[in-house]
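[09:14] KT: can someone run the structure on this one? pasting the chain below
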Amino acid sequence: MTIANPQHLLRLVLSCRKITAQVTNPTTSSIIAMASSSEQEFAAQYRAKLNRFPRSHNYWDSKIASRIGEKLGFRLKEIGVSNVEIDLIEELSRPIHHRKMVIPLFESVKRAGVGVAGAEKLEL
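[09:31] RB: done, structure tokens below
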């Protein structure tokens, strides 16, 4: 992040069960917008994967990540945020299979009209 013009920071919290995207204010570090696969909209899909046989070890995929990015982008536009920044070092340190699944999230945020600084460096 640049000191002269700090941008809002987009961070992802990933587990095998859910994905959460949150945007924090650069000065106060408080969360200003977030979207998660644990929201009501995704409950039916989660239950379907939970009861599937053979059992899956991952309950979200790139389609869900894309939808979460879309929701987050709309929420950011609603509150007037037009640009966010990702922690590139953190995102590059993720395993490649997680990185492939979260790239659609960043693309969805961009399609919603919010710039994502650093996401272009994640392309595989």
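[09:33] KT: thanks! The mean pLDDT is 86.
[09:34] RB: yep, looked fine to me
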